[in-house]
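User: Continuing from earlier, I have the next pair ready.

Assistant: Great, send them over.

User: Here they are, in order.

Assistant: Folding the first of the pair now:
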Amino acid sequence: MTISEKVAYIQGLYDGLGLDGEKSGEARILSEVLDVLKEVGQQLDGVDASMDEFDAELDALSDTVADLEEAVFDDEEEDDGFDGFGDDELDEDFFEIPCPSCGEDLVVDDEALAAGVVDCPACGGKFALSFEDEADGSDDE
């Protein structure tokens, strides 16, 4: 039941009581309150209608933006290369690993691999590189 319908119901109850606003101060006050409630109900109905229109327009805009995003960014999702280097600069001497302390992705080159230790610039932590378990596929500890 909408606000306007509820106000109409209350108006019906008021009218059914047969109160005379000319003779009773309380009846006059109730009549004025009902008039205000009618106006509020009408304005809320207008706001609801406007919100429905805005919602429909927002849905249409959202669909349009989604289509534009797909058209513009679809090619970028297919690019699996590291964003810090151009395709010509990226070679097999670099690889990415997450820092075990902070989770930041780090680019490691063969010098760090040869040293066996990596310094994380994000958190300052140091950790050793070990690929023994990954190479043979076992977890012998």
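And the other member of the pair:
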Amino acid sequence: MATEIGHFIGGQTVASKSGNTSPIYNPTTGEIQAACALASKTEVESAISAAEKAFPEWSSANPQRRARVMFKFKELVEKDMDNLARMLSSEHGKTLPDARGDVQRGLEVVEFACGIPHLQKGEYTESAGGGIDVYSMRQPLGVVAGITPFNFPAMIPMWMFGVAIACGNTFINKPSEKDPSVPMRLAELMMEAGAPEGVLNVVNGDKLAVDTLIEDPRVKALSFVGSSDIANYIYAEGARHGKRVQAFGGAKNHMIILPDADMDNVVNQLIGSAYGSAGERCMATPVAVPVGEGTAERLIEKLVPRVQTLKIGPSMSEDSDLGPLVSGPHRDRVKAYIDMAIEEGQELIVDGREFSLQGYEDGFFMGGTLLDHAKPEHRSYQEEIFGPVLQIVRAENFEEAIQLPSKHQYGNGVAIFTRNGSAAREFAQRVNVGMVGINVPIPVPVAYHTFGGWKRSGFGDTNQHGPEGVKFWTKVKTITQRWPEDVQGSEFVIPTMD
């Protein structure tokens, strides 16, 4: 009988009583290695109650104390890095170096949150009017929640709860049921770091758990990362229930390659960004846009042998380029998109559909796939594939290259490779995408800036981490004060600062 992973509520691991579970696979072998409990409505409500109980003490703690907990949490995660990476790789399928990167990128936001005494300061204006001072303060919202995806089970939870908890909120994480072990371990480490019971809770579950978080009035804000259809649903339903919501969806990131680009550098960067983590990243680069036929031919000439020789291995590998996909159904979905692309008229240059790793024939592996002559009207180009598949869309000129990502339904990230500073500057100004890389293939901003896409890649007007994260997880209270020595009658007009 497979081990069942329950929940983390009120400072301790608790077994689920719902009786419903979802299998957790080892993507390398294809075997079921554990079961993830799917919470009942009552179990989700108990996590909300635990967070609600913890909120008064935690929110009233001075910011230095909260910062010290975050510093200690960072230290504990760093000490546990190898264990977390192995746990992550065994459930997700990404290689160990990539898993460590997942944890590290999350820790960088925790590092940012350690500065919360400075980040949460308000504003003050002395003598805004006759004897009147005006000041503001940023206060936590209360019980808040994050619904996090399978592809970054360490990074994205820490992006959310790192800032939210440092600001004085109490948090409920509903991770993906495909790989819940790392979020559970992070909650244990947060308690070990000194956070009171109930400050960070983890509830495993499915749509029932999500809907309970959306509908319960005690939950004041929701952050989500996942597919665009679900992001749209959570944004609309959360707003309908009076919550603050940020919901990040899918992506179809483009790399624009101008004729003057260093093609060896382009290929080095494109291989990693397109095929790393088996393409299961919202900031992957699944579309290459060479400008001009000559650029396209030079790109393909150098790219094909690199795709053909990608090193694919078990998820616990230290030296593989990529591991398996997260599940069998997801692998089959990716293969179906390749079939679709061929039917649409795209040229299959490298086919990874039949790849099998010796000794791991039942694992969820795919080889790298390369397709040429994708067109804007092709459905396989319009939609997110989320696998080790790179499509080439040839652009005749610079203007067409700008319009391809600008008109796409997704607007998460885009990159341009060139030696021309003027062209790069114009591209960055004009392109209709939320994050832009100039000779940088995966333009994920550093933790003290902010992350967020446009169009169907992001719903809501506040981004993740950085100053925008502090803004999202707090509310502003503004105080106008006067200490008169002698009150002189009543005023019947609106106050002004004359």
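Worth noting for the second one:
The first strand starts at residue 3 and ends at 5. The chain has two domains: 3-249+457-479, 254-438.
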